[in-house]
Amino acid sequence: MKTIYIDFTALGDYEDFYAQLKEKIKLPDHFGDNLDALSDIISGELEMPLHLEFVNMSVDQLETFEDLLTTLEDAEDQVEDFTFTYFLEQFEDDDEEETKEE
């Protein structure tokens, strides 16, 4: 299964997301940067099996990209051999670091 990783560390908006997606996946020339187009290519034009994984999402990005997450969760339910996951960025607790240094 092919896995595509999208790193949200430097993503601020949908324009940033689609730019990174286009770097990782060869999209058709007619692809429009919108959720309907994304859903269409997942359901008919991308080679499966495919796993799309978002890494380093912030809590704020969960809200910003809520419609994207919903679209991909729906695609996962509807398209055989397509899976999707996302992971929040991890922060170390400053108190833990101080304790380790002592």
From TrEMBL:
Pfam families: Barstar (PF01337). Gene3D superfamilies: Barstar-like. Transmembrane segments: none annotated. Residues 1-87 form the Barstar (barnase inhibitor) domain. SUPFAM superfamilies: Barstar-related. It comes from the Bacteria. Belongs to the barstar family. This is Barstar family protein. It comes from Chryseobacterium gilvum.
